[in-house]
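re: that complex we talked abt at group meeting.

here r the seqs, copy pasted straight from the sheet so there may be weird spacing, ignore it
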Amino acid sequence: MLIFEQSRSGRKAFAQSPSVAADLSGLPESFIRKEKPGLPEVSELQAIRHYTNLSRKNFSIDTQFYPLGSCTMKYNPRGALAAAILPGMLNRHPLAPESHSQGFLACLHDLQEMLKDVTGMKGVSLTPMAGAQGEFAGVAMIRAYHDARDDDGRTEILVPSAAHGTNPATAVMCGFKVREVPVGSDGDVDVETLKTLVGPQTAGIMLTNPSTCGVFERRIEEIASIIHDVGGLLYYDGANLNAILGKVKPGDMGFDVMHMNLHKTFATPHGGGGPGSGPVAVNERLLPYLPTPIVGKDGSDDAPTYRWLTDKDIPETIGNLSAFMGNAGILVRAYVYATLLGREGMHRVGEYATLNANYMAKKLEKEGFQLAYPDRRATHEFIITLSKLTKEHGVNAMDVAKRLLDYNQHAPTTYFPLLVPECHLIEPTETESKEAMDEYIAAMVSILKEAESDAEMVRGAPYTQPVKRLDDVKAARELDLAWKG
Amino acid sequence: MPFIPHTEQDVQEMLDTIGVSSIEDLFDEIPPQLRAGELTQVPEALSEMDMMRRMRERAAQDEGALCFIGAGAYEHHIPAAVWDVTTRGEFMTAYTPYQAEASQGTLQLVYEYQSMMASLMAMDVSNASLYDGASGLAEAALMAVRANRKSKSRKILVPGSVHPSYRSALNVIVEAQNIEIVEVEWNPSTGTTLIDNLASFEGEDFTAIVIAQPNFFGQLEDVDALTDWAHAQKMLVVGLVNPMAMAVLEAPGNWGEKGADIVVGDGQPLGVPMASGGPYYGFMCCTSAIVRQMPGRIIGRTVDLDGKPGYALTLQAREQHIRRSKATSNICTNQGLAVTASTIYMSLLGPDGLATTSGHCYQNTQKLIALLTSIDGVDKAFSGHNFHECAIKVPAKASLVLEKLAEREVLGGFDLGVNYSDLEDVILVCVTETKTDTDLDVYKLALADVLNEINS
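got the structure back, here u go
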């Protein structure tokens, strides 16, 4: 039932708004709203019960194993939330003077320093509000760099065919043409073809490493040379940073600019689709173009004072991407997470994420599932392909994903990357226990048997959720996007 | 090991299954010269107890002042229930509802949100959110260019009385698309955009105009006249509004003869804490005619195999994960949790509660204006009407006055001189329903005291 269907005229949560009407007599009639908005009229308890019950119709990290590949659904420490909602943090106005901001600015400055270290970069701007906005900032900086050198023939950005959809979409938003680079059968970029695609038109390349194929791009240094030799720059899509956190620094691989997804690698909550946070990091040559604002530090380490750096300090900046400081509260959570992990914990993230993925990959392979890249080490994630099952029993990757829900397991990412047919991209993360992964594997084994004995049943899954499979075609054709009463 | 559950025995069993002797072996495909050394700038770990001690100290440093700053972020009462329910793990730790059957909670909530927001704006449809108001305005500009097929100019009129940070973010984001932002002057005595200011653009091809209500100075624009003028010129109208104000002021869907075509703004006033600037969310509504040009996630109501109603992501063919380089935007993750809070907030306030709250913002602002302008040399900078912000002219440099107010634990507003060189003696002051008469008196006394000190 919708909240609107519980609405009764004259009902409300009386404790939540002033009890007497305001005096609007100074406002001319022409400015005033004539018809009330169609908001629900319910009691406080009705609202709470309704939304609490809705929450129970969700899978989440707190309630289920959620191995959604490329999304890094790891545990979100509650301590980070507790710190971020301390009154001094929660109630601080974004434009409060620096005299009333030193505590907040200190957290951001510390975070900038830590991110520089783990990325091997020279400068960080925390302001982008999600991975895709970080990508935008990064590619805009590449553009600014070439523009500043009057190198205006650079019209193309190279993107591997396996890349996240945001990469090509970002390149276009930044005014570039996209040229796709093929990926070889071992999951690595086809370097020989890449050599034929680069030239004076190359502005840069956007790469994820480990790639979306769940393998480490082994010839990354060679790729960096190829791009740099023709005057292009390398963009690192940090979506998969969890795999190498504390183990390899993107700056050392030859990347010039990158973004991080703090809602992945730094464990800030995914929130049912956001907010994320996508800070960017750059090496020396892109420092002048970092987006504002950035936190600067004056004075000694014993008595530091912090201040905002703006376009007055960074005159060549690409500018600001939000009204204030991006998703500040998420940055505070990420800072707390990094503080709780510390130096050693940071190294362990990449190690145990990799251990878990390789364990699951090997065990699923032993149970008869086909790995997309059986001769490669898995990184923090890996791909299985269910083509054989589809051919033999007519049960496809989506059917298996839906059936997993009946086993109380969240489905992995399906049909991505596009170049592996009938695929599941599985990312357990370091915070999952061996038992949780074993349960998932047991469910997969069981579904495999079901597919062999009763394919029709599997194709109809799920059966235990609040709804069965939904009619997506009807949703798109007969658009119903708002309740009309 | 914080957040890692493995026992030594687990690790050994897992390594045996994989067939390697150490975790280190799993990194054997990475060229050895690329392996990172020690992290020198990441300190040793703190326990949660020690971390909280540090964070309490830092948070306390920034606490305690009475805040009269608005300028895009607003202090409102947030019912305790809002974030209590929003931070339930089932909402907070889920992700984008790709598996619709296992995400009906989030999906139905967003459908309810879209319904509420569309109704509050008097528009047909709403999307599931964008990052914030400023980047939302940029997405609206890009959408307008796609939607207005009659216009070839890719030029958009934006009054100088639109939030300066919104205008600069807009420029940064649309610059590479060959979209030209043309600034419209505002009238110095009313602080608003008048038809006179637009006369010189008549007959020229523009794709759209942005109309802010209230505008950055807190002033109310003649939205009906501006909307009709723009439509007569075949432009699309992008309304940029404060959603709290829309409980009292006429909604964009009802502006002029035909109403706005696209509406954006920042949803922060509806139950989202100020939190140093985010996470907030950008809302976006439009008419049905151009919904397929909208960026971002959209939730639709449909039925399942048994004919039972259910909710799913829809119109995904617009989005980057399907269309890649031809997508309407590169946006992927949005601001779902902030939208969750706003949905619960709007349910708790209801139409009457929201109107009363909004009305008290207006009323308190009028009270403060009367108090402040009773001080010698202090006056309203503009004539006309305002909502919950007002540009106040003081007989000294605004920056100095604000600094001295802050010493007295009053954050007196935003220094308009930062962005407008003619307004160096003007403070943008905001009052919401959270301020009591005593708070307003504290401000007045502090300002009088500061001006005395400066003039003596």
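couple things i noticed - The longest strand of chain A covers residues 202-207. Chain A is about 35% helix and 10% strand.
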